[in-house]
Specification:
It is a single chain. By secondary structure, the protein is α/β, with parallel strands linked by helices. The strands form three sheets. Strands 5-4-1-6-9 form a five-stranded parallel beta sheet. A hairpin with a 5-residue loop joins β2 and β3. The longest helix is centred in the middle third of the chain and has 18 residues. The radius of gyration is 18 Å and the shape is globular. The relative contact order is 0.20.
């Protein structure tokens, strides 16, 4: 199975800060007709993908030989934008527009696996708190996409339409090695009198009026790396 490091991606308040219709000074030279997200948040997401991909761990295999393990970031769309095919297409089109605008080979390589499709979507037919939506995906996908009909699940995933399949990866044999959620909603203090401490090692809460920052990126990388160490039982 392919180990993956999942980044749950919200849009509003993360890639698209509230009030971002008014361009910041650093976006004045950002001439990109297809780009709907500010350059600052796209730069931060690019850094996150780069830094996670650069994670390198040395482990010993079954024969006691050293083996180098690299990070493998994948994007799972958790935003409510996932419910509309045209919105998903707009996101992917904006990603491509950003990469074309930057015109850097390194950025092109970082984004290449993510430009044509998301790795997956949080179930577009399931609507609850963001915490519950994400943890439902985790339960359904602990052993890969072939596990959607696991009898232990409290609900069965609706079969995806051809349109939904167009914007997600075809990889089915994977294992979630680590994950974080980029979201402006609080995944820990979910509701009044409801605190979900199990989300603490995974939650990267953004400031909705600012969006994703490099400080958020550093937290996300640290959380993923800690989980990877635990996955391989490294001290």
């Amino acid at each position: 199975m392919v180990p993956v490091d999942v980044i749950f991606l919200d849009i509003d308040g993360v890639l698209l800060p509230f009030g971002s219709a008014k361009k910041s000074s650093q976006d004045e030279d950002y001439k990109c007709d297809d780009c709907i997200f500010p350059k600052s948040t796209m730069h931060a997401l690019t850094k996150l993908l780069q830094k996670v991909g650069d994670i390198s761990l040395t482990i010993k295999d079954g024969n006691n030989k050293q083996q180098t393990i690299k990070g493998s970031p994948v994007l799972v769309l958790s935003s409510t934008w996932r419910a509309q095919q045209e919105f998903i297409n707009d996101i992917l089109k904006s990603f491509k527009g950003y990469v074309a605008f930057v015109q850097q080979q390194e950025v092109q390589q970082i984004w290449k696996p993510h430009l044509d499709a998301f790795f997956d979507l949080v179930d577009p037919c399931y609507h609850a708190t963001r915490h519950d939506e994400i943890f439902s995906w985790i339960r359904d996908n602990e052993r890969g996409k072939n596990n959607h009909n696991n009898n232990n699940s409290s609900k069965k995933r609706k079969r995806r339409t051809p349109q939904e399949l167009e914007c997600t990866s075809t990889v089915v044999d994977f294992q979630v090695r680590s994950w974080i959620a980029l979201d402006d909603e609080d995944l820990v203090n979910v509701e009044e009198d409801r605190v979900e401490k199990k989300a603490i090692p995974h939650a990267v809460k953004t400031e909705s009026s600012v969006g994703l920052t490099l400080q958020d990126v550093q937290l996300g990388v640290t959380l993923l790396e800690d989980q990877m160490h635990a996955f391989y039982q490294l001290t």
